[in-house]
Amino acid sequence: MLVEKYKIDQFNHEILNDHKRKFEFVASSVKNVEEILQKLVDFQIAIPSWALGTGGTRFGRFAGGGEPRSLEEKIEDIGLLHKLNNCSGAISLHIPWDIPTNSNNIKALAAQHGIRFDAMNSNTFQDQAGQEWSYKYGSMQHIDKGVRRQAIEHNIEVIKYGIELGSESLTVWLADGSNFPGQLNMRKAFQNTLESLQEVYAELPDNWKMFVEYKAFEPNFYSTTVGDWGQSFLYASKLGPKAYTLVDLGHHLPNANIEQIVALLLMEEKLGGFHFNDSKYSDDDLTVGSINPYQLFLIFKELVEGMDARGMNHASDLGWMIDASHNVKDPLEDLLQSVEAIMIAYAQALLVDAKELEAAQLANDVVRAQEILQGAYRTDVRPLIAEARLRGGAALEPLNLYRQLKVRENLIKERGLKTVATGL
Ligand code: LRH
Ligand code: MN
């Protein structure tokens, strides 16, 4: 479904005065507001190709209708999101769920929608029809060289698809691990995995990055061979300068201090990017900022501080990707909310006066330090993000316009109620 520009302009016109009033109020208290607005306009978040349909659990899946039936329709749906908020200008593909039938056509369609290809994702956690070796007992860690070879070849094939589409990074998430003590020689598993990743690393074009995604548990429930940030850092350090860690917010044990992990990985120049989502218990893949928005703000505070300390470009030097699953919400509404939550946390972090905070830290003025942080966190930055959208030609209130245009109803008319998108 296409959203014509005039419909966005009409919608914005109705609420423009109210927006201007709110924007001028918050802008009046922000020192470098134009610099912040430009950063918000430049910031783009990649949408996962595997999260455009209804997700589910082993207990059930409740399809919502109008789901994309092909990669082309997935790109159209992301194009619609990007038209509404002007900060969803990238797609992250998962292979083989989204093999591009004709890369040039897919590339041209994405370009029409202003969508670029972010990290490619390999899949050695499921057995495909006709596959020679099973990944039941792992892939790159596997005791059997044939299985490891198959996993290596698959990742090299994924890189090839990515090169054709203009992607410049590969995310490797390995489900590998064990379910019971004694099942696995964990040192050998590490060495097999490292050797396998080294063979994939050797095939990376010069300008590419490899993201090693860690996860504490699931689908293995005793050990995971890339189980935490330390292990991912170890692999990325041993692999070489093109290898980095990838932080999926849902992949930590309860109460992990993720913002500290982010601060250290960034300082060590080994932070590659993010899979944003939220969770209360484990890898719940809930809407970003829906459970713990303060943690998301603290993570962005460390990101802005750490990137500025190294003179990094906020928009392009790290991988900004969502990885969520939509069990009860309309997938596109859920993604609009997630993108908004990320932009809010980023804008709040940009309001933190780094010099004031450092002065408080150097004076051990703990109260002042907290007041500086929470002052930024408690600032309603939504008018700043809306203004950035307005300047980018998008909607002041994407979710409201999405509903006003009855997008889901139209997609169901176009595609039917029973369509199922590939993915999780
Ligand atoms: C694993 C993960 C990984 C993806 C998958 C869809 O939990 O986060 O990033 O490959 O979800
Ligand atoms: Mn992930």
TrEMBL record:
GO terms (molecular function) for this protein are: isomerase activity; metal ion binding
Q: Keywords for this entry?
A: Isomerase, Manganese, Metal-binding
Instruction: Check the record and name the SUPFAM superfamilies matching this protein.
Output: Xylose isomerase-like
What the entry lists under Gene3D superfamilies is as follows:
Divalent-metal-dependent TIM barrel enzymes
InterPro entries in the record, alphabetically? Answer: L-rhamnose_isomerase, Xyl_isomerase-like_sf
Q: Which domain of life is it from?
A: Bacteria
- What name is this protein filed under? L-rhamnose catabolism isomerase
Annotated organism of origin: Segetibacter aerophilus
